[in-house]
Amino acid sequence: MVKTGLMTWLLYSTLFAALLLNSDAANADERKVHIVYMGDRPKGDFSAKATHHSLLTSVLGRSSSAQESLVYSYGNFNAFAAKLTEEEVQKFSEMDGVVRVIPNHILKLHTTRSWDFLGLSQSNVGAQLQGDVVIGLLDTGIWPEHESFNDQGLGAPPSKWKGTCQGANFTCNNKIIGGRYYNSENWYYEGDLESPRDSEGHGTRTSSTAAGDRVPGASYYGLANGTARGGIPGARIAMYKVCWSFGCGAADILAAFDDAIADGVDIISVSLGSVFPVPYDVDPIAIGAFHAMKYGILTSSSAGNSGPWPYSVSNYAPWTLTVAASTIDRKFVAKAVLGNGQAFTGLSINSFELYRKTYPLIWGGDSANYSAGASQDLSKYCITGSMNSYKVEGKIVFCEVLWDGTGVLLANGMGTIMADDEITDFAFNYPLPATQISTSDGEKILDYIKTTENPIATILLGETLTDYMAPYVVSFSSRGPNPVAPDILKLDLTAPGVDILTAWSPIAPPSIDWEDPRSVDYNIISGTSMSCPHASGAAAYVKAAHPDWSPAAVKSALMTTATVVDPNKHEDLEFAYGSGQINPTQAI
Ligand SMILES: *[C@@H]1O[C@H](CO)[C@@H](O)[C@H](O)[C@H]1NC(C)=O
Ligand SMILES: *[C@@H]1O[C@H](CO)[C@@H](O)[C@H](O)[C@H]1NC(C)=O
Ligand SMILES: *[C@@H]1O[C@H](CO)[C@@H](O)[C@H](O)[C@H]1NC(C)=O
């Protein structure tokens, strides 16, 4: 096992080189952002800015060059980010006291699709105590006007709070008490907003899941209608926007940790990670979380959505809380009903109501757009661009693979029934009436199409079923072992992260079609990006009840009281669920 781990690591380290923002080796003189990491902040009087400036001057030769090159001087640990040539990188690497020179690189959000909604019943930690707890999130920003972030009933921020709210057109209140943003490469693409405001939706989801206020009557087109709320609705939120449409830069992530420590957050929630396993001293989350821990702050992080393969876990440093995603007792389904009365239940968060009206049903293979170069072999999967709109218009199309529905939608189809056995434990939402059935049911539908003169069908509005198997860890949730230290057990815990109702940015698409023009305030979504803030909320809940507990004590309380999940449902046992499902009320 150790050997496999090492080999995986070596492979990933090689691939990692390809991810660097600075991998253009051709131009050695060009200055690129690097992090020079030197460990703890020295004891006693220490001016980070002055120290880093003089170190830079000693290598770059001139004080003015040093000034130009410096991007961040981190103050709560000894490190800085600066634009350096390869020769300068070499000099710093050989310098006494330098642990690592880390090229700026891109980390990614841990979302396949997510959500939120919480299982904590009316909490017995008083609102006043909750209000003393601040959760800092490193994410895509937040939508400050969202109903989930109204501050009714909340007093002024706790006196320890030193954070701030920066950026145009972004206002904090007594719920969102901090908002900062970081973009060291100055890369802004279409849709990126230069403020802590969220255009992607991810940060709005994670924040509302951890600490959103109670909002009754929240739903996704009537589905999952109920009260949406965070794990600890009385807690405060501080947003550190480090992720943009290109991803999340390492130097920015460290800057956010540095500020969060100084601002006075209690818990840090990070639903993003490296794309490949890297050693702890190259991983900005591992480094940031390490120093946060020394200042008494626990970092809760997502395990990643690269499961079910072994060694797929991200954020595996021993001092972070690593969270898997598991199901709740609710499943989203939509029925396909044929003209002969046969009905098939499929997975889908179907927001479209056809009022049981039937439409002609065709097989995707019979509707290839030959002039677009498509054939029956492509159009039977209903791949985007492969469909002939003359054949598809106004019809329901049967497709032989799970797809996002845009193939049928763009050819003016009415709806789609997709047969696929790959994904069976969570549902997607689509831009048109759609459902995903098993391949064996698919054969029955194909048979009906072939043997019937005028085959017709309809797709019913989505509904929810009780899932008696819950909780179990979902297929996409990343698995241990720990890829760099296989003898240290990871993951730590699992928390709800499948088909969860969560706050949504009104300018983010409401289905898996990125061009879906509809706008919603709540959505239903899956991912470890969503289970992580559940655990962050639970950690904040413990911290509110026991302000003097160390990060290790909070983590221990959560792990030792976790509800044991059924090992028979998990081939990979603890590598899937760690110590079990969070149980916040037991933890306090
Ligand atoms: C501020 O943001 C809101 C929400 O996107 C937008 O409607 C408004 O026009 C913005 N105002 C300015 C001055 O940019
Ligand atoms: C949600 O439920 C509430 C209370 O039962 C009801 O008044 C409301 O109309 C429902 N909303 C939707 C969109 O179905
Ligand atoms: C076939 O594909 C071409 C190229 O994408 C497109 O322009 C055309 O409208 C399509 N034809 C039909 C009937 O869908």
From TrEMBL:
<feature type="signal peptide">
    <location>
        <begin position="1"/>
        <end position="25"/>
    </location>
</feature>
<dbReference type="InterPro" id="IPR010259">
    <property type="entry name" value="S8pro/Inhibitor_I9"/>
</dbReference>
<dbReference type="InterPro" id="IPR000209">
    <property type="entry name" value="Peptidase_S8/S53_dom"/>
</dbReference>
<feature type="active site" description="Charge relay system">
    <location>
        <position position="529"/>
    </location>
</feature>
<dbReference type="Pfam" id="PF05922">
    <property type="entry name" value="Inhibitor_I9"/>
</dbReference>
<feature type="domain" description="Peptidase S8/S53">
    <location>
        <begin position="132"/>
        <end position="580"/>
    </location>
</feature>
<keyword id="KW-0378">Hydrolase</keyword>
<keyword id="KW-0645">Protease</keyword>
<dbReference type="Pfam" id="PF00082">
    <property type="entry name" value="Peptidase_S8"/>
</dbReference>
<feature type="active site" description="Charge relay system">
    <location>
        <position position="202"/>
    </location>
</feature>
<dbReference type="InterPro" id="IPR045051">
    <property type="entry name" value="SBT"/>
</dbReference>
<protein>
    <submittedName>
        <fullName>Cucumisin-like</fullName>
    </submittedName>
</protein>
<comment type="similarity">
    <text>Belongs to the peptidase S8 family.</text>
</comment>
<feature type="domain" description="Inhibitor I9">
    <location>
        <begin position="33"/>
        <end position="110"/>
    </location>
</feature>
<keyword id="KW-0325">Glycoprotein</keyword>
<keyword id="KW-0720">Serine protease</keyword>
<dbReference type="GO" id="GO:0006508">
    <property type="term" value="P:proteolysis"/>
</dbReference>
<dbReference type="InterPro" id="IPR023827">
    <property type="entry name" value="Peptidase_S8_Asp-AS"/>
</dbReference>
<dbReference type="InterPro" id="IPR037045">
    <property type="entry name" value="S8pro/Inhibitor_I9_sf"/>
</dbReference>
<dbReference type="InterPro" id="IPR015500">
    <property type="entry name" value="Peptidase_S8_subtilisin-rel"/>
</dbReference>
<keyword id="KW-0732">Signal</keyword>
<dbReference type="InterPro" id="IPR034197">
    <property type="entry name" value="Peptidases_S8_3"/>
</dbReference>
<dbReference type="InterPro" id="IPR023828">
    <property type="entry name" value="Peptidase_S8_Ser-AS"/>
</dbReference>
<feature type="active site" description="Charge relay system">
    <location>
        <position position="139"/>
    </location>
</feature>
<dbReference type="GO" id="GO:0004252">
    <property type="term" value="F:serine-type endopeptidase activity"/>
</dbReference>
<dbReference type="InterPro" id="IPR036852">
    <property type="entry name" value="Peptidase_S8/S53_dom_sf"/>
</dbReference>
